[in-house]
Design goal:
This protein is of the alpha/beta class and about 300 residues long. The chain has 7 helices and 8 strands, in the order αβββαβαββααββαα. The protein has one domain: Aminopeptidase (3-Layer(aba) Sandwich). Strands 4-1-5-8-6-7 form a 6-stranded mixed sheet, with helices on both faces. It has a two-stranded antiparallel ribbon with strand order 2-3. Strand 2 and strand 3 form a beta hairpin. The radius of gyration is 25 Å and the shape is globular. The relative contact order is 0.15.
Length: about 300
């Protein structure tokens, strides 16, 4: 059957049916909103109602700081892909989960800090759910762990750390200000009952404070990892990453290295290598919370 013949059938047959129905006086019902056979697809999903919150481990004391660790990718999304010397496939999702668990174990070993993982197994987790888990749990810090790929190049290596760019931060603040269900959850500031303009200003201020805290933590990661980890040139970076857009939880994305580089891959896939990453990040976390505690108590 030719394309022209198929097109004529698709166009003319429905017209013929409609014409015949009209000639016979038949009425063909037109779908209307509200009828059972009409499917509705909401334009804005209620993300919070779909989330299964993970277990919080560590001290049974809600006054202790809570770190939410996000292992990037998972399930049918493998992330970046590399191949080891034996030709075996290396997937980012497995690397990030192993690093997340290593960091969790290191924090729990030292004590004093509560920890939750956005995923503790190989499952797909929608991107909007990841920072929302941190918000719903009232996290003090959110760390999303990833690994990178340089494609065919194997000479690119090193870790980097991302915070939200200024422009993206302002966009995120505006979006959160428009959401009624976020009315009183911003750094302890109650914005319920305020005008739209006042709410927008308060959310913007909250976002600025959150970004300052995220930048401070990113600096600590680079300082603590200077002698222990290999970083790319100019490792402190900013981007419009959706996973970092919570307005009231300091958030960073840690790119641990390149799965396409032999040296990085060895660090990322061995217990000894993962231990170094965990120790660096855990030290940075402890210093970060120690400084915040000192400021809160009026210290220098």
């Amino acid at each position: 059957m030719s394309y022209r013949t198929l097109l004529l059938i698709v166009v003319l047959v429905p017209l013929a049916l409609l014409g015949g129905a009209k000639a016979l006086g038949l009425v063909i019902p037109i779908p209307q909103w509200g009828r059972d056979y009409v499917l509705r697809f909401p334009l804005v999903e209620d993300v919070a109602s779909q989330i299964e919150l993970p277990k919080i481990e560590g001290p049974d004391d809600p006054s202790r700081p809570l770190v939410v660790i996000d292992a990037g990718h998972g399930g049918r999304d493998p992330g970046a892909i590399g191949t080891d010397a034996d030709g075996r496939r290396i997937e980012e999702k497995a690397i990030t989960l192993a690093l997340a668990k290593a960091l969790r174990d290191e924090l729990l070993r030292a004590g004093g800090i509560r920890v939750a993982l956005t995923r503790a197994d190989d499952r797909i987790l929608p991107l909007p759910h990841r920072p929302e888990i941190a918000r719903m749990l009232g996290a003090s810090l959110f760390i999303s762990i990833h690994a990178d790929s340089a494609g065919e190049r194997d000479d690119v290596s090193g870790a980097s750390i991302y915070t939200l760019s200024d422009e993206a931060s302002s966009e995120a603040a505006a979006r959160f200000a428009a959401r009624e269900n976020d009315a009183d959850r911003l750094n302890g500031i109650t914005i319920g009952g305020t005008s739209a303009n006042v709410s927008a200003i308060l959310v913007e201020l909250s976002q600025q404070r959150t970004q300052e805290d995220a930048l401070a933590f990113a600096g600590l990661v680079l300082r603590e990892g200077d002698a222990a980890l290999a970083f790319v040139p100019q490792p402190r970076r900013a981007a419009a990453l959706a996973v970092l857009r919570a307005p009231d939880v300091p958030s960073v994305l840690f790119e641990s290295g390149f799965v396409t580089n032999r040296t990085d891959r060895a660090r990322l896939t061995t217990p000894e290598g993962r231990s170094k990453y965990a120790e660096v990040l855990a030290r940075a976390i402890r210093v970060y919370f120690a400084r915040r505690s000192d400021v809160a108590s009026g210290g220098e």
